[in-house]
Amino acid sequence: MKIKEWLSRLPLWLYGCMLLPLLAFGLSKQVVSYFSFSDIPRIWTDEAMKDWELPNSNPEYSAQPVSEEFYYNLPERVIYKTYPVYHPDHEPEGYWEWLHELEAEIVLDESKLLTEEDYIKAGELLFDYPIDTLGAVISTKHVRNIDFYTATEMPLTPEGIMPFAQWVVAGKGKVYLGNLSCAMCHTRVMDDGSLLKGAQGNWPGDKAFAFALETDGASERAIQNITSFLFASPFAEGDPHGKLLATGKEAILEAYRAVPEGAFGRQGTSILFPPQAPNLIGVKDRKYLDHGGLGQHRNIEDMMRYISMNQALDFLNFYGDYNPIGLTKERLNSGEPIFFPGTYDRHSDAQLYALAKYIYSLSPPENPNKPSELSESGKIIFAEQGCVTCHTPPLFTNNKLTPTDGFEVPDAHYDKYDIFGISVGTDPGYTMKTRRGTGYYKVPSLLGLWYRGPFLHDASLANLEDLFDPARLKDDYVPTAFKPHDVKTKAVKGHEFGMELNEMDKKALIAYLLTL
Amino acid sequence: MDIGYLDIVVAPWGSLRKCCVRRENFNYLSGKIDFRSRLLILTLIFFLIVPFLLSAQSFKPENPIQFKIKNAGITVDGLISDWEVMVDFDPKKLTQSSIRGKANPESIQTGIKLRDKHLHGREYFHIEKFPFISLESKSFRSKGKNAFIGIFELQIRGVKRELEIPFTLSQTGKQQMFKGEFTIDRLDYGLGEKSLVLSDEVRVVVEF
């Protein structure tokens, strides 16, 4: 598709938004960094990008990322000070006016980063820094509308702060709602209202997006386009996303609303098979990133690549000849900037390094579930039932990839990756029918189960009890968390471990799992 | 790490079903080759098979092969039930005696079905490629009354290793009962990989 044609197909609201970054920031700082810190790895090299990701389950459509040259020509992100977003009823008096009086303040100066602690601190700033002020998910008018909070059942802190988005002050009077900070999807408001950074987030993001599309009066065409940018994978068997688009506006909005807190239709995944938002606490020890293990994680550079790719350069990937936002290779490499959220600038290598150091430094809160007689007997059941083989202590994962039903492991993968050659039989949709799908599901770590949920890669089960409930295997089951928008009941298949235990043993097993 | 939990033991040839499969393939091939080669092949097979038929008869023991391995501190008991042995053993003629066994790893049972299936896979027995386990005696020596030590060659997953197996014989009339126990290191045979929870050692008990 020609870019002009592509642009003309964009929804108006998005189109209008494209000018905003210029208004907000002027042009981003160009590639000059203040100094070069020799330890900071250069991550996006053509060599490294070649085989860092696993192939797609449909290998001809494996992602081809932008080139090293393209990447390093993108301007680096400038990090401004941000301010919390309050529920309108809780906003301190005069706060809004005060924000508009402020000048922009640049809070991250890479030349001042020297020690490991400096990097971790900078990483926390970056973690909370939105990469988008174009309204990629929600915008000012939504968060200043009380209905937004009720429609989405938005979790709030006791102060009434909505911690998933921030105000960015880009200059006097220029107050923008920032989207897509890591905190948006990787922060959890706990039952007591405290915030746990890095935990499986509980941002009801797809409900929020549905609210935004609906109250903005987005047209059917606009909704189809944006949904296609995010999730289309026309090369997947049966093209489930193409079918979703064809069902029209209301059905698509329903599909967004069906995604529960704790899962999010990240670009390249799906709202039909939404990925659980992973817990980043402990991610340092995981060998594969994403539920399908798309990104290898052999060292900090891989983590930096992952962050950069997913914020959001994967929109520029080609999958065969297909590009999600309708670019051609000529257009991509024409030298003209591409105004799509997250794709016209990038984090600097030092920023990525800081982010990675910060998420590596995350540690779990103290577990209130202390070992008891019950949990100790659960520990033995955990070993007897063979859970240990896959969920091997001390990480409670063997860090391996299990093929999903219907995926034949290519011989070469046994030498290249860590394969545990047996399917646990869970829903293959995410890993067989999305841009990020690899044909595998990784064995997740069970650390921190007590502070998270819903469970399984598609967040289909709200409670650990549900995982061991044989009723879930039947077609008349109503999934307790994610349930596809177009069905009333659905079996949650697979992972049939520990299901035949008696009630007492299940209790003990769960008591043990909650101590991890 | 891995499911391991298990391991092994004794003896040659796959199940009957496997033989048939192999024969079918062969016929298919032979259809494409000329008569003389066919005759040659048939003759070869004749000489390969006949010695087997002539020597002691093989039989399927009642007791399965048993094994034990520690996984996360818990001992997992497993069985391999489809196996057969061929015994030609005379305590007075040890040099002429022989014991051979073959077991079908597909018949492994550890109490968890998915685990058994995983053990069939290429990280463990890789049964598609290695449809049987074999154990073949090389020599025997006596170790007191009714007690012997045999040097055997154990083959699992295409890896052959010699090992010493102490065993006992109890004889009632013509009926001989053998019992042997030994330990192997599963890693020697490429059964799974080093694991934090699964021990390397597998204790095997064979009785027939």
TrEMBL record, chain A:
Domain Cytochrome c intervals: 168-363, 373-516
Keywords, ordered alphabetically: Heme, Iron, Metal-binding
UniProt-listed Gene3D superfamilies: Cytochrome c-like domain
Protein name as it appears in the record: Cytochrome c domain-containing protein
